[in-house]
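Example record used in the benchmark description.
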Amino acid sequence: METIAGLLTAGRYSAALSLLRSGANTDSFSGAEREVVLAELLQKTGNAGAAQNRVRRLLRTAGLADSLRVRCLGVMVEELRDLADIEAGISCLQRAWNLARNGKSDDRACWIGLPLMLALFEGPGPEAALGFLPSVRNAVVRAGDPLATAALHVFVAELEAKRGLVSNAAEHLRVGRRLLAQHSNAWLEGSAAVGAACVSFLLSDMGTARTEALLGLRLAEQSGHLGVKRAALANLGHIDLAEGAFGKAEEILREALHLSPPASEAQKGIVDGLAQVALAEGNSPEADRLLRTLPEWTPETPRGSWYYGLWSCVTRSRLLAMGGRYKEARDLLAAAVTGAEGQPDTILASSLRLLQAEALVRTGRRSRAVGVVAEAAAQAGPAPMDTLAEVNRVAAIALAAGGDLAGAGTAFER
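Model output (structure tokens):
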């Protein structure tokens, strides 16, 4: 007979929620612990409002055990991350981390430490996250939980991919999946598939990226984890966009959008993807309409919103270029390139520099553009094929503008 505890260990959250609500097999969960488990499951399966209401009530309860308080704070931080309030999220997670460590609860500490590591990456930056990594690793080792070890590799793979270290990310995913083959967990397996889809996409291996994204979607159905399902759909939408299947891309991205909390970072990223689809179809009015629903990135934007905010600058500048508004694009990109210098995403930085170079050429600043192209090429490293193609395309524009038609032709052929 399936138990709630067994379903939680297997990462099958929808099934665990149904069993908990039925009142069956709840002997091991009663009172406040049952309420905490219910809040965790509601959060994971997409009912964030009900989850947040429950943990707020619980945190006001006198005498709530620290172990349960830690778990309530873990639920609360999900809402803060959705709202890009990264500073509040880090504060909440640090409080939970300290409670878990003071209570000698390594199993709780590692499951709090992993999202705290991601939050530090999104806020203060990769140095802060990597500086905290040994503490998380120590907690995972002391916990002795193979699922926590697998989760550590899956989470670190996400950090490495965002830093542009694709081979490192792939290796962490390989190790994590090897552990999950022996200790199955649908949520972590789905997360690993989503990560593998991203790695394959970055390597321009669209066939493998699609296979992994579809696997992530199937595992999301098994686990009931809304975030994994949304991420898998977003991956599929971007794969369709890259392959020119614009109608399919829009349909899938809109499905992912339907699963995104309002005003969340996930929603912003998906809306930007829809704007990219509109641009690819030559529908600049629709792209403009979509981008106007997003807050514009500025250096004063909260750090938790910089990732999608800067990527939206890529889309906005392409829209401006499509309309021949190169001076506006140049001004927008000058600030965005500076902002991206503090980000670990080398593909983002290269994309912004290449657009900046084209805007500089179109506004008569060819010599500066040549330097920017060189900077982008050096920064790209092991970039996807489309990024390398864009380097050569912009280089060709700069060479042609300077009268070097032979050099421009060679660059275009590349």
